[in-house]
């Protein structure tokens, strides 16, 4: 296959669906978590679940970087813009994530805060270069995929001696989140679901490779299949997982061989290692404090670290009491289990972060799955 439409071929999808039905043991149930929000979106958009047998269940995971961002981090960005007069730049999805006191970055902007959307970290650096009298902070988020570009602009800022530019780092790590899903103190409080395996993220794996997932296969006996984002990618990964479960195997397999290797992108990894180091702990929405699950800026780049530069003091803020985003991110509940879903909480008026990003489980389900579920009910 060479072209995108080949990965969306209906005839091939029907053939894969038939193969999955033939290989799935009707006497048992399968539960697979697609970690990445891109997979959640593809599964909802292309109706993949409609093609699966009833005993194969797909569970949404915490692989949406906007969804797992805790309220307290957004509050810090708003504080910088409203109280310090700093220009805060970030990706578009972040602007609408609910924060404290009924605010979001977008609503804070309406109150006079200088908060702007950018398409890349390089855009933020370019603004700081163009306007040296303006204090610019790039609110950086994302998993391993978006971390190298942030590291690069920090390198460039130091090389340029750009004193008016800094980064508020919110980059988080995929393997730590998977481990927390499988085993953490919060599991006893929020509950968990039995998982037979994972669909590993695509873009993240182009950076870190397939090797980091080998631990989960060996230690927890959970198979992992790395898959691309097209519907046929996802279906083939599900078939590979079913086959592993049937054969009592727990291995890391790579469906996305056209982009992912075992070692990953070594140059990007070296760049990230030079600029960032592990935090001892970082709060994730829905997962709580997760040890060694996020990155912070190393001491040689401290002059461009917004948290150090502005003395930011992080405080944890609880989510909306009626919002089930935390349980949904864990896979414990589905979007339709939330009383706010589709009524008070919509993409136009999100109560929780899962309804904001197009990769969020609630947004994907609202756009592509809610009417089918209601009809089935």
Automatic annotation (TrEMBL):
Lineage: Bacteria, Pseudomonadati, Pseudomonadota, Betaproteobacteria, Rhodocyclales
Protein name according to UniProt: Hydrogenase maturation factor
Encoding gene, per UniProt annotation: hypD
Family stated for the protein in its record: Belongs to the HypD family.
Top-level taxonomic group: Bacteria
Keyword Iron set for record: yes
Organism: Thauera sedimentorum
Record keywords, A-Z: Iron, Metal-binding
């Amino acid at each position: 296959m060479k072209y995108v439409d080949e990965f969306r071929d209906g005839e091939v999808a029907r053939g894969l669906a038939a193969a999955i039905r033939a290989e799935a043991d009707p006497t048992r149930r399968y539960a697979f978590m697609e970690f990445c929000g891109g997979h959640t979106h593809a599964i909802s958009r292309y109706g993949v679940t409609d093609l699966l047998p009833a005993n194969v269940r797909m569970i949404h995971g915490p692989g949406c970087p906007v969804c797992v961002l805790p309220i307290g981090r957004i509050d810090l960005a708003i504080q910088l813009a409203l109280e310090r007069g700093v220009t805060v730049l970030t990706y578009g999805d972040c602007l609408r994530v609910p924060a404290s006191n009924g605010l979001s970055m977008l609503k804070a902007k309406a109150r006079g805060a200088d908060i702007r959307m950018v398409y890349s970290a390089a855009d933020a650096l370019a603004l700081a270069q163009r306007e040296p009298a303006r204090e610019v902070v790039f609110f950086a988020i994302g998993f391993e995929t978006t971390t190298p570009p942030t590291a690069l602009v920090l390198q460039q800022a130091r090389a340029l001696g750009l004193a008016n530019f800094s980064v508020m780092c919110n980059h988080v790590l995929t393997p730590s989140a998977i481990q927390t899903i499988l085993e953490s103190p919060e599991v006893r409080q929020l509950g968990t679901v039995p998982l037979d395996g994972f669909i590993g993220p695509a873009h993240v794996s182009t950076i870190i490779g397939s090797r980091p997932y080998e631990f989960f296969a060996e230690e927890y006996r959970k198979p992992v299949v790395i898959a691309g984002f097209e519907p046929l990618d996802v279906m083939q990964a599900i078939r590979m997982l079913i086959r592993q479960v049937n054969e009592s195997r727990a291995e890391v397999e790579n469906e996305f061989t056209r982009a992912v290797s075992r070692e990953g992108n070594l140059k990007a990894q070296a760049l990230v290692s030079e600029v960032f180091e592990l935090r001892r702990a970082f709060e994730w929405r829905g997962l709580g404090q997760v040890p060694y699950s996020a990155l912070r800026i190393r001491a040689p780049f401290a002059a461009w670290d917004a948290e150090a530069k502005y003395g930011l003091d992080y405080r944890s803020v609880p989510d909306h009491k009626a919002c089930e985003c935390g349980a949904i991110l864990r896979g414990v509940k589905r979007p339709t289990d939330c009383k706010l879903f589709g009524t008070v909480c919509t993409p136009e008026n999100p109560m929780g972060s899962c309804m904001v990003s197009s990769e969020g489980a609630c947004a994907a389900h609202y756009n592509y799955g809610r009417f089918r579920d209601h009809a089935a009910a």
